[in-house]
Amino acid sequence: MLLLSREDIKQVFSIQDAVEADKQAFALVTAGKCEVPLRTKIQAPEYDGCFLFMPAYAKEMEAASLKTVNIFPRNMDKGLPTSPAQVLLIDGKTGIVTAILDGTYVTQIRTGASSGAAFDLLAKKDCRIGALIGTGGQAAAQLEAMIAVRKLEEVRVYSRNHERTVRFAGQMNEELKSYGTKITAAESSDAAIDDADLIVTVTTSSSPVFDGTKVKKGCTVSCVGAYQHHMQEMDPAILARASKIYFDSKDAVLSESGDILIPLEEGIITEDDFTGDIGAVINGGLTGRENDDEIIVYETVGIGIQDLVTAKAIYEKAVEAGVGTQWG
Prior knowledge:
The chain folds into two domains: 2-106 and 305-326, 2-Layer Sandwich (ornithine cyclodeaminase, domain 1); 117-302, 3-Layer(aba) Sandwich (Rossmann fold). Helices cover 36% and strands 23% of the residues. It contains eleven helices and 15 strands. It has helices at residues 6-12, 15-31, 103-122, 139-149, 162-175, 189-193, 237-241, 250-256, 258-265, 278-282, 304-321, and strands at 2-4, 40-44, 49-58, 63-71, 85-91, 97-102, 129-133, 154-158, 182-185, 198-201, 220-223, 244-247, 276-277, 296-299, 325-326. An eight-stranded parallel sheet has the order 9-8-7-10-11-14-12-13. The protein has a seven-stranded mixed sheet with strand order 2-3-4-5-6-1-15. Helix 2 (15-31) packs across helix 3 and helix 2 (15-31) packs across helix 11. The longest helix is centred in the middle third of the chain and has 20 residues, at 103-122. The radius of gyration is 19 Å and the shape is globular. The relative contact order is 0.19.
């Protein structure tokens, strides 16, 4: 069994690799070529926490996976990951676990890559300004994915803790300087999204974190954080203005995301307003962006096949490079 740490993975696997892995995963889902049961959730309300278990199997890949990922927002105040996780990669022919990967990092890059894939497929070609709302454990990968698929002049970052936002922006300017994008700390959500071509929200908020009436025409919005029914990062006003509404998985989103469930329950939207899964754009069954004025919304909650495809790609690269620790 191969043990792969965060640093091991970084040696062999880039955010661009992760974007391509996510595209493959979404294509498999849409084509019905994988089994992805809805994730199991166990609440730990005394710690504002939640345990999640996400299995997946793809016959043509001859592989399965199980990810445990636990969402504990209070960890941020302790300097700990807010979504600690492990991924077990399993041989589909024998059922033997072939690798255990740092699931926190796998989750970060495959979740960032989900927004990256959406922007690559749905955003205007000419984008200059990005906005990132949220500075938690998922934020860095979201930021890198955004600037990896579109050459942006500036990304404005906002969170309620301005001191932490300033620190985050400074750190990202250093870590991502090779992209040539200026990363700045915004004083408000409105300032962050002003004139933005791309918007990512990655928070655990239970109320909207941006004003949907102030999003400009042609913007592509990716909402990432609302993985439970009571969570709602997205301002429903943007849904009424959107030309298209895509999902990583409609079934998964409708099982848990307050961003979509709450507006549905309130009658702001109906299922007739949904465009469909992003995998259908990849497979040619749906049209993506048709002009530069369309506002396009992408809602993602994450699905287990992303972890499987990403983990297998990492494992193969690590074996080829001789990276990782053999155990057992």
